[in-house]
């Protein structure tokens, strides 16, 4: 998929309430603000309203835009950031005109994307049937019950199923939008854009939506130097004992402190870092899968494939094919 038109669907048959704006502004910011020094051309964003404001709607925000539902057909990417709350909480039907337009856009070859409750619109259109998909964890039970043909995963940040992608709510929508930029324009552009937005450059889609931390994720325990050293030495065989020794604590104390600070165990943390390194190498180099496995500390190509399939959901080769280096991207 190359850079092109992004149609952002805005549910305007009722006034927008303030808390709906968050998911709407994420794709508007990522795809609507030109970044000519990173890639030229950038995306062309169209805000496509689903209807007209009603005078007796709840207090909220209206939208002025020259684009309507007909304009999503022919777009390269269609994003549904949300549906009216009554479609989720009260099982009210998703507007029929929107469902029809989504089907037409998909049939025309558009890449279909939902953020948070927008998954209900894609599901109603039948675009998620037989596919793995996600939404905000507070809505996934309703999504699974209402659309039994959808394989709902309530644990992940986002799901990339090729031409149809879904994300959890709130900040996970930003993760998915940056993932789309990585697919389209390469990791350098996505990383620079994330830096400008002051957010992490890459959280893999398989990361958990919610981690119950008993204490704030801070570095009061002084783990940052040790973890930075570990990231710089992922190609080496690392153990909890190695990290604890550098932190000048016992392995048991290190285990407890890391889990308190990150919500995960040292072994899982190391695996996440190694998979992240492997993803970066697959995106930005032509190194063989065997070499990527070696440099990321996963040892063998078979081991890399095993963890990639389990955590990312695709093979390393398929993942690499999803990130062609775009000729218009700035050199890294």
From TrEMBL:
Keyword set, alphabetical order: DNA-binding, Transcription, Transcription regulation
InterPro entries: Class_I_gatase-like, DJ-1/PfpI, Homeodomain-like_sf, HTH_AraC, HTH_AraC-typ_CS, INH-QAR
Species: Saccharothrix carnea
GO MF assignments: DNA-binding transcription factor activity; sequence-specific DNA binding
Coiled coil stretches, renumbered: none
Annotated ranges, domain HTH araC/xylS-type: 224-322
Keyword RNA-binding: no
Protein known as: Transcriptional regulator GlxA family with amidase domain
Superkingdom of the organism of origin: Bacteria
CDD domains xrefs: GATase1_AraC_1 (cd03137)
């Amino acid at each position: 998929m190359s850079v092109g038109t992004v149609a952002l669907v805005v549910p305007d048959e009722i006034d927008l309430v303030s808390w709906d704006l968050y998911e709407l502004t994420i794709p508007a910011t990522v795809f609507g603000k030109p970044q000519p020094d990173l890639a030229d051309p950038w995306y062309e964003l169209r805000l496509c309203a689903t209807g007209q404001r009603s005078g007796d709607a709840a207090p909220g925000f209206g939208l002025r835009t020259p684009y309507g539902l007909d304009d999503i057909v022919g777009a390269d990417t269609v994003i549904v950031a949300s549906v009216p709350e009554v479609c989720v909480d009260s099982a009210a039907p998703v507007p029929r005109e929107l469902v029809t337009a989504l089907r037409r856009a998909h049939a025309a070859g558009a890449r279909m994307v939902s953020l948070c409750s927008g998954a209900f619109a894609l599901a109603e259109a039948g675009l998620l049937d037989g596919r793995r998909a996600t939404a905000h964890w507070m809505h996934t039970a309703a999504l699974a019950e209402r659309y039994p043909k959808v394989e709902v995963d309530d644990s992940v940040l986002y799901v990339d199923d090729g031409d149809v992608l879904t994300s959890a709510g709130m900040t996970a929508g930003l993760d998915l939008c940056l993932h789309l930029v990585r697919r389209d324009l390469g990791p350098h552009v996505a990383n620079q854009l994330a830096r400008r937005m002051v957010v992490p450059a890459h959280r893999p889609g398989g990361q958990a939506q919610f981690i119950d931390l008993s204490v704030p994720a801070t570095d009061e325990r002084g783990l940052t130097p040790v973890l930075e050293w570990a990231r710089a030495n992922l190609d080496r065989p690392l153990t909890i004992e190695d990290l604890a020794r550098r932190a000048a604590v016992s392995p048991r104390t290190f285990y407890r402190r890391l889990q308190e600070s990150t919500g995960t165990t040292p072994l899982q943390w190391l695996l996440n870092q190694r998979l992240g390194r492997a993803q970066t190498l697959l995106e930005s180099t032509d190194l063989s899968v065997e070499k990527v496995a070696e440099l990321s500390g996963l040892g063998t190509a078979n081991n890399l494939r095993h963890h990639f399939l389990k955590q990312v959901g695709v093979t390393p080769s398929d993942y690499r094919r999803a990130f062609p280096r775009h000729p218009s991207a700035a050199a890294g």
